[in-house]
Amino acid sequence: MAEKAVRNSVSLGVFLAVAAHPKVPFSVVELAGRGITADAAANRWVLEVGKLSLDGLALADKIINFGEREDELAELWQEYGTGEVDAAAFETGLAEIVAAMEQWSSAPEKPVEDFSSCLRRVLGPGTDG
Q1: Which of 15, 22, 79, 122 could make a disulfide contact with 84, Cβ separation 3.0–4.6 Å?
Q2: What is the 3-state secondary structure (H, E, C) of the chain?
Q3: Residue 105's pLDDT band (boundaries 50, 70, 90)?
Q4: Is 76 within 8 Å of 93 (Cβ atoms)?
Q5: Cβ distance 63 to 46 under 8 Å?
């Protein structure tokens, strides 16, 4: 029997919890659905585009940026759960995070530059080479 890949995504877990919460309005459920789609698109973009078109450091920076949105999402959900954030502020914050996540993988990237010349040691006169 083949094992299924385990999906470990903080944002997916939060979006599912938001969508399943009995007291959130349908507009928030809709935002959670958009967030799930944005999370899936971002993961797919990393595998199908990002790894092929960006150097390692640029891709890492982009992934860190996405992780920051994920951290904001988890913090917002926690604040909503403890009552620190009311329903209107939660919906506004969630809409901002989802919009940022949706734009994340659609933002055009510069083509990968050849950084190998930066790594070569430049030999000067009188050095061993």
Answers
A1: 79
A2: CCCCCCCCCHHHHHHHHHHHCCCCCHHHHHHHHHHHHHHHHHHHHHHHHHHHHCCHHHHHHHHHHHHHHHHHHHHHHHHHHHCCCCHHHHHHHHHHHHHHHHHHCCCCCCCCCCCHHHHCCCCCCCCCC
A3: confident
A4: yes
A5: yes
The pTM (predicted TM-score) of the whole model is: 0.75
d(CA 47, CA 52): 8
Six token digits for residue 125: 């006169």
- Contact call for residues 4 and 66 (beta carbons, < 8 A): no
Beta carbons within 10 angstroms of residue 61's beta carbon: 10
At 62, list the tokens. 């982009």
pLDDT of 117-126, one tens digit each? 444 444 555 5
Residue type, 95: A
Q: What's the pLDDT band for 51 if we cut at 50, 70, 90?
A: confident
